[in-house]
Amino acid sequence: MQARILHLTDTHLHANPDYVMMGRNTRLSLLALLEHIHSESEKPDIVLVTGDLTHDETSKGYRDLRAILETLKAPVYVLPGNHDIPKLMHRHMNKGQVGTQRQILIHNWQIVMLDSTIRQSDNGRLDDSQLQFLQHCLGQYPERYTVICLHHPPLPTGSPWLDTMQLENSTQFLNIIEKQPGVRAVLWGHIHQEFSAQLNNIQLLSTPSTFSQFKPLSSTYAVDKKRNAGYRWLELSDNGELETRVAWLPG
Questions:
Q1: How far apart are the C-alpha atoms of 227 and 192, rounded to whole Å?
Q2: Beta bridge pairs of residue 188
Q3: Among 38, 46, 7, CA closest to 186
Q4: pTM attached to this predicted model
Q5: CA-CA distance, 83 to 81, in Å (whole number)?
Q6: pLDDT tens digit sequence for 72-116
Q7: Fewest CB within 10 A of the end CB: N or C in the chain?
Q8: Please, which residues have CB within 8 angstroms of residue 169's CB and are 6 or more apart in sequence?
Q9: CA distance 67 to 194
């Protein structure tokens, strides 16, 4: 049996439907992306959205995003990014099919959702409560395979300006997970681009934004004009195998 996971990130939705960021309307891009996903033959069992849900940090932005995500007709789990207000997110993103559950069990797997945000900072950090929760989940279900989600990258990704905003205690985090044979992947957003690396048997994966991307390997801020909106599929097999691919919105 397989679990099919859809990973979205960095929607940056705004209460103003005409809001444009990095040259694109974030709302229209998300709607086009979801229409493209709806056209695919295979549907997600669950959806994971890893932060920067809104850009203006408003109640309306969260309510609008929740309504849009509901159209996926699958359970959706969200976590905050540096452009979110966690308390406001929890207030508006826990209704219907959308929720902020931190531990999700599906088949032989668990998905652990971590909050790496630091209020009023673009940087990320997993505080003691987040690390303790992670270790609790890993100890609670040692027989399950694990996917860990957060917003900030836990390692440098090759763009010096973005690498200043990675997880501040990444060494501590990686030391925990590399000792756990059941951990199979870490998913994040924040860097608006596709990225992959390997740590032992753990896949380290960043997913593109649902509207615009930063140019990879750039030393300064730059938009990647060659890439459109993107998303990631993951297939989790009961034997612990994980297959993944990034899909791009045409055009």
A1: 10
A2: 206
A3: 7
A4: 0.96
A5: 5
A6: 999 999 999 999 999 999 999 999 999 999 999 999 999 999 999
A7: C
A8: 125, 126
A9: 27
What distance in Å separates the CA atoms of residue 135 and residue 180, rounded to the nearest whole number? 10
Note whether 180 and 201 are within 8 A (CB): no
Question: Can you give the pLDDT at residue 214?
Answer: 95
